[in-house]
């Protein structure tokens, strides 16, 4: 691995962090689902939604502060939270619909939850740095250019990459 291209050391560390946070919050989600649907006897769809929401809150904090820290630079927390809620609601609707649907065709709800969570997790890996935690021209905070003057922030073009400062020479930003 030469550090150029998509599979850089930083990208691989980001994937490891994403998987660690995802696994931890998935275990919280799965454990809460089992407790809420089992001993608490809540309906499966309600238990699924509550467990998912609890895990999603923890996932937001860890993803923004640790996993996609570079992509989060310059993005306003409120904007990121609104975008995150949109992605989570989409994932919640998919999860709450597919887990019972899989159960209806004979798949144990715990196995269904694992399958659906895997699909939602893959989609989230791309949505988080490209949209949720990425600063844009209107919501990014200005940063200084290489010469010390104020520069405009350009959105990151590669998930997990820090945004470039407009007006900097390509060598200063690492851009081609």
Automatic annotation (TrEMBL):
<dbReference type="InterPro" id="IPR007267">
    <property type="entry name" value="GtrA_DPMS_TM"/>
</dbReference>
<keyword id="KW-1133">Transmembrane helix</keyword>
<feature type="transmembrane region" description="Helical">
    <location>
        <begin position="81"/>
        <end position="102"/>
    </location>
</feature>
<keyword id="KW-0472">Membrane</keyword>
<feature type="transmembrane region" description="Helical">
    <location>
        <begin position="12"/>
        <end position="36"/>
    </location>
</feature>
<feature type="region of interest" description="Disordered">
    <location>
        <begin position="152"/>
        <end position="176"/>
    </location>
</feature>
<comment type="similarity">
    <text>Belongs to the GtrA family.</text>
</comment>
<dbReference type="GO" id="GO:0005886">
    <property type="term" value="C:plasma membrane"/>
</dbReference>
<protein>
    <submittedName>
        <fullName>GtrA family protein</fullName>
    </submittedName>
</protein>
<keyword id="KW-0812">Transmembrane</keyword>
<dbReference type="Pfam" id="PF04138">
    <property type="entry name" value="GtrA_DPMS_TM"/>
</dbReference>
<dbReference type="GO" id="GO:0000271">
    <property type="term" value="P:polysaccharide biosynthetic process"/>
</dbReference>
<dbReference type="InterPro" id="IPR051401">
    <property type="entry name" value="GtrA_CellWall_Glycosyl"/>
</dbReference>
<feature type="transmembrane region" description="Helical">
    <location>
        <begin position="42"/>
        <end position="61"/>
    </location>
</feature>
<feature type="transmembrane region" description="Helical">
    <location>
        <begin position="114"/>
        <end position="133"/>
    </location>
</feature>
<feature type="domain" description="GtrA/DPMS transmembrane">
    <location>
        <begin position="17"/>
        <end position="133"/>
    </location>
</feature>
